[in-house]
Write a structure and sequence with these properties.
homodimer; alpha/beta; five-stranded mixed β-sheet; 5 helices; 34% helix; CMP_dCMP_dom (chains A, B)
């Protein structure tokens, strides 16, 4: 989680909503890390999780990551939750819960439907305070409170 | 929809689950087209919709596509439904309904939650028979019926 938190801090330094993600393999080796990059890439789907998952799969040249863990500082949104299922990730570890935009424990609860063909082990709330504090500090430093919805 | 169907046929020719997508702007001009490319890219998230949306946003250099229509041959899965909301697409037009893996009218119904911050106009069932026939023909030609779940 500390690697993911470092990625989140990097995002904040670039003016991106601070979310960071890491993909590790079955032996615990880091396959990919990523920061949220929606602004830099002009891509509303350039979330840390999706970038890290795609990078890990590209590194391996495989479309599934069945032995892997995704660690991310914030509860994934529906996009990233669905990507986690599609890549058949073994374990999801996340930091802060996200009642506003989350898709795992909130809203559509993507894994909790028969249409979801793979459900990872889910561990939420790891280093929750630190993960949430990075986000809170970022939004408190922004002038327009309306910017706080989504990434 | 005929452009999207042509993209779906291209996918089938490449051994990809035949789904095609087109993004058009407010004036009806085509911004991007894409075929499902999960196998070729070794990327479980390389769905036609997500590829077309990212290409359209990249072409414009903008993170939102507020005036645009996404036309796709199959009901989007939760990943693509969430991407449609994130890109703030104005209108979604799709062909066949997908009770097995769909995320708009089935399963998590991504747009139907307060955590979804943008809901497009949704028109389903356009050229439904033709869209479904391309998928059915593809799976009937594959040896292993277990391959028919997801892309």
């Amino acid at each position: 989680m500390q690697r993911a938190l470092n990625e989140a801090r990097k995002a904040a330094e670039c003016g991106e909503v601070p979310v960071g993600a890491v993909v590790t393999d079955g032996a615990g080796a880091v396959l990919a890390t990523a920061s949220n990059a929606v602004e830099a890439r002009h891509d509303a789907t350039a979330h840390a999780e999706l970038l890290a998952l795609r990078a890990a799969a590209a590194r391996r040249g495989e479309k599934y990551l069945v032995d892997c863990t995704l660690t991310v500082t914030l509860e994934p949104c529906p996009l990233c939750a669905a990507a986690i299922a599609l890549f058949r990730i073994k374990r999801l570890v996340f930091g802060a819960y996200d009642p506003k935009s989350g898709g795992v424990e909130h809203g559509p609860r993507v894994f909790d439907h028969a249409t979801c063909h793979h459900r990872p082990e889910v561990i939420g709330g790891v280093d929750e305070r630190e993960s949430a504090a990075i986000l809170r500090d970022f939004f408190e430093n922004r002038r327009d409170p309306a910017n706080s919805a989504g990434r």
